[in-house]
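Can anyone check this?
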Amino acid sequence: MSPLVPVQTIAGQRCPGVDPVGSVPSAAHRLVDSLTITAAEAGGWLGSFLWGPQGFVSCSPAVRPLLDVSPEQLADVLAGVLRPILCDGAGSGWDIYELETDVDGSDGVPRRVRVRAGHVPDAPGWLAGVLEPIGTQTEDVADRYRLLLELSPDALIVHDAGTIVYANPAAVAFARAENLADIIGRPMLAFVAP
């Protein structure tokens, strides 16, 4: 497991009201250890974090480059990533939460991260977890839409000013064309009865 770094070494100063690292419940470290093992078994490069009753407490050195944020932005960005879990308060019976979200990096490019976190047993207000990078949402969505179009039994075409720029296999069959090249670049009206 990566060592946890106190917040003052990350942001340069301790935020008012943030719990000192020395008061972290031992169960929080055990939870981070178990989540780290689970994520590592899944092959993820990851960073760990602790969130206390008063806010951000600490994180491993891997978190900041993973989110690609400045030290000053770290607590706010992490709060945004954790918002769905933090809004659940003390938990609703879930042992471990897992969510995927996009975080805009310093270059404006979104980074998709998976968060595995849990409320620390017998320590109200404490949350511990790990972050790991995954493929970007944009790539995932593009693949899903491509598959949706390619596998649809309905004839689907995309045109630009009336010229066909895409046709799925069902459209090729519907137009009684031999292959996709027979359709691409032709006017849509060429396939409409007069």
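Reply from J.R.: I decoded it. The mean pLDDT is 75.
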